[in-house]
Specification:
Radius of gyration: 18 Å
Oligomer: single chain
Number of helices: 5
Largest sheet: 8 strands, mixed
Structural class: alpha+beta
């Protein structure tokens, strides 16, 4: 795949956890020169995942992930930058996390924006709903869990409340909380960077 010179742009992307109704989503501003490996790190923090499982990206007919000598169909995510595979508004990808639970996320490049000098990227600018917890059985398991914690008469109510903690609120979302998790990955950009 030919590489282009890194543009000094920011992508506004919307990440939606597929199968959730109402949807769990995040709107993020990320540098165009971010690798897919680093985008994985951003998505883990933005969605509240713990990075305990395998993942991949599907863009068109191509798959990207951690290099695996036994799976030649997966391209190395460490060497692929966003602008090479999602280079314009409207570009789409699917990010799958945890092949057992199969958490699929749609990624859509909503806008291509200029760098705002002094702004740290990546940054979350919006979102809705708390992310689902790890290892709860995918989307069906998540909805079973929500049913159990909301019904004191449910057979698993106490068990699920103990597992999640009493303060779990599926409707809660905080941009500030997400940005606090993203802070270790963020750096300030200048318009002249890379020129």
């Amino acid at each position: 795949m030919p590489t282009k010179k890194a543009p000094q742009e920011i992508y506004q992307i919307k990440v939606t956890l597929l199968g959730t109704k109402p949807p769990i989503w995040r709107r993020l501003l990320v540098p165009a020169d971010l690798t897919l490996e680093r985008l994985h790190d951003v998505l883990q923090r933005a969605m509240g995942w713990e990075d305990c499982h395998l993942h991949d990206f599907r863009i068109g007919q191509d798959r990207f992930g951690v290099p695996d000598p036994e799976d030649e169909l997966v391209a190395n995510e460490r060497t692929v930058r966003l602008f090479n595979v999602l280079g314009e508004a409207g570009s789409k990808a699917v990010y799958t996390y945890d092949f057992g639970d199969s958490w699929e996320h749609s990624i859509v490049v909503e806008k291509v924006l200029p760098i705002e000098p002094g702004q740290a990227y990546p940054v979350c600018v919006a979102g809705k709903r708390h992310g689902s917890p790890e290892d709860c059985g995918g989307v069906p398991g998540f909805y079973n869990l929500l049913e159990a914690i909301s019904d004191p008469e449910h057979d698993q109510h106490e068990e699920m409340r103990d597992w999640l903690g009493d303060d779990f609120d599926p409707e809660f979302f905080s941009v500030d909380d997400v940005n606090q998790r993203l802070a270790p990955l963020s750096r300030r950009r200048s318009k002249t960077e890379g020129t």
